[in-house]
């Protein structure tokens, strides 16, 4: 039996003690080493996951041209896979642990039961689903309408921690290899490197050993707006 607290189960604040106890009773902690394949489409037909630690990449891959497109970069408190919970269909995507990942695994039928019977669970699940749908809509729009430089700046701004303006850390992008950033915006590593170096020359970014920090948020916002 697990011993997860309400804090560890965020964003599910407000769950009853009874439901937390049930989660601890039926849940299993799965661990995935850094750079290993994580849960696959067979796993998500049977189970639902809440990321507790680390970052998980969800992506599509084309072996004919060796290109990949990241659909989601998930971090602590993110859920996977919300689509399969709703439609029961196989979701043909690939996953990879960017860091060492720890995830809570729950039986998918139990999650569907909670959706039918637990309002507190619903209040978290459906807004999260909407957030993921908006993300995919924005990704499709960006890939269709904007060049790689603009897509990169939008990605940086989206991940910027505005709550700590003195640090300007980049959330899930922190210390992420450039090839992974490229996969998120539909391009390749050398293109991302070129754009990052240009932003560095303009004094917008600080880059040290692939660690990015924003020096001038106002200038980055203006540049992204000018190029849209």
Short note summarizing the structure:
The chain is of the alpha+beta class and 228 residues long. Helix content is 45%, strand content 21%.
Protein topology:
Layout: H1 17-26, E1 28-32, H2 41-46, E2 47-53, E3 56-62, E4 67-74, E5 79-80, H3 82-87, E6 94-97, E7 101-107, H4 108-117, H5 119-145, H6 148-159, H7 178-184, H8 189-201, E8 205-208, E9 211-214, H9 217-227
Antiparallel strand pairs: 1-7, 2-5, 2-7, 3-4, 3-6, 8-9
Helix pairs in contact: 4-5, 6-9, 7-8
Structure notes:
With 228 residues, the chain is of the alpha+beta class. The protein has nine helices and nine strands. It has helices at residues 17-26, 41-46, 82-87, 108-117, 119-145, 148-159, 178-184, 189-201, 217-227, and strands at residues 28-32, 47-53, 56-62, 67-74, 79-80, 94-97, 101-107, 205-208, 211-214. A four-stranded antiparallel β-sheet has the order 1-7-2-5. It has a three-stranded antiparallel β-sheet with strand order 4-3-6. A two-stranded antiparallel ribbon has the order 8-9. Helix 4 (108-117) crosses helix 5, helix 6 runs antiparallel to helix 9 (217-227) and helix 7 crosses helix 8 (189-201). It is globular. The termini are far apart. The mean pLDDT is 91.
